[in-house]
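User: Please predict the structure of the protein below. I'd like the answer in C-alpha cell form so I can feed it into my own downstream comparison script.

Assistant: Understood. Taking the following sequence of 268 residues as input:
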Amino acid sequence: MNMRNISDKKRIVIKLGTSTLAHSTGKLNIRRMTNLVRVISDLHNSGKEIIMVSSGAVGLGTGKLGLSKRPKDTKLKQAVAAVGQCELMHVYDDMFEKYSVTVAQILLTKTIINNPNHCENFKNTIETLVGMGVIPIVNENDSISIDELELEIGENDSLSALVASLSGADLLLILSDIDGLYSDDPHKNPDAEPISVVEEITPEIERIAGGAGSGLGTGGMSTKINAAKIASEAGIDMVIMNGKNPELLYDLFENKDIGTIFVAPKSQ
C-alpha cells in the first residue's frame, strides 16, 4: 500500500501504554516488556532514531505498593507515581543495557510544553541524546505536576504527539491493547471491522472512537484520535497497533498492513 511507506521513516516516537507494559494486576509484564526492548533495540541498531514515551509509572507504582487499584486521590497518585517512575526506569535501564543501548529519562510538565524557552531546551536535549545514540524515554512528571494527573495535558497519547511534533519525528507509533481503529468497539461488538487507513479525521471517526481505556491507564481510543490530530497538524503519520506481539513491529517496518495508519496531509 503506497500510504504505508513506514520503512522510510527514520525518527520514530513510540508510545507504550500501561496495558502494554503491565498485567491487569498492575505489575510488570516481564515477557512482553523483554520482547519490546529487544525489538526496539534491534530497530535502533538498524539506524532508526527512537524516542519513547512510556506510560506505566502510576500503574507500576500501584503494583509495587500492593494497592488493589489505581488511586484516585491526587496526593496518593503523586506518591505512587514517584515509586513507579523509579521502578520503570530501573527496568528499562537494565533491559536495554543487555543490548548495549543507553537510555535517558526526560520528565515533562504542561508548564514546560507551554514555555517556548523550555521547549527549545527540550528540543536541544532530544537532538543531543539522539545524536549520541541514546534512546530518550519521556514521561509526564506525575509526582510533581497536579495538572498532568488531572489530565490537563490529557494523557500520554496526546503527550506522545506533542513530543513527536517538538522532536521533528517522521512517525508516531502508539502501542495499545487493541489492533487498531475499528468501526465499533471490538470489545463489545464482535462484528466490528478494522479500519486500515484513515486519511481524514471526520466526525464519524471521532464518534466510533469514543470510550475509555483499561483500568490501569488513562487513555482510550478517543485520546488516540486526539493524538492523531496533533500529529497530522505537524505533518506526522501515526500508527495505532497492538503491543501484545512486539514482533509485529518488524512487519510494520516492512510496510505490511499492521494496525491503523492515520495519514498526515503531506503524505497524501
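That's the full C-alpha cell string. The radius of gyration is 17 Å.
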